[in-house]
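A further point concerns the way the authors explain their paired sequence and structure data. An entry of this sort, consisting of the sequence and the corresponding backbone structure tokens, reads as follows:
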Amino acid sequence: MPVSTLDPKTALLIIDLQKGIVTFPTAHPVGPVVQHAAALAEAFRRHGLPVVLVNVTGGAPGRAEQARKLDALPADWAELVPELKQQPQDHLVSKRTWGAFTGTGLDAYLKNLGVTQLVIGGVSTSIGVESTARQAYEHGFNVTLALDAMTDTNAEAHENSVTRIFPRLGERGNSQEIIALLDSSRQ
């Protein structure tokens, strides 16, 4: 379903747009993804709505066949990309799992603000973005996925999330549509 409405208290979640991750090869060029995410952040800030910037600082405990070693990473690996222009009022969530809700207090933070809807973008579509969107849906938030503000390291995984999973979790749109809806609903 295309994005149709934004609740009065909507927050933006940008997932893992950090220096160490944006260097990975992606299905879509990461530059425009970062630009669209930055435009969304600017629009949410302009309207006084919460912006949550999420980074990953380690891995979850447990064994996996494809576990990525996060030991001995460069010092700036978890730093957010500068294009996001992190502001003092932005809420930073540092996670160690795929989803941004697990063990971070994000649900309580958002509900304390009265947030009922989340616009989500970032990388990777099939991992951090999808996991966070699933968790948001399970926590009772209305979910909107900013499709041009996300990409994945695997084109098939990205396509699966966008076409099969996301329609079951919420609405989808591009950043311009979301910003236009935000601007028109806040006049």
Notes: The two ends are 25 Å apart (CA to CA). The mean pLDDT is 93. The first helix runs from residue 30 to 46. The beta strands are 10-15, 51-56, 91-95, 117-123, 142-151, 171-173.
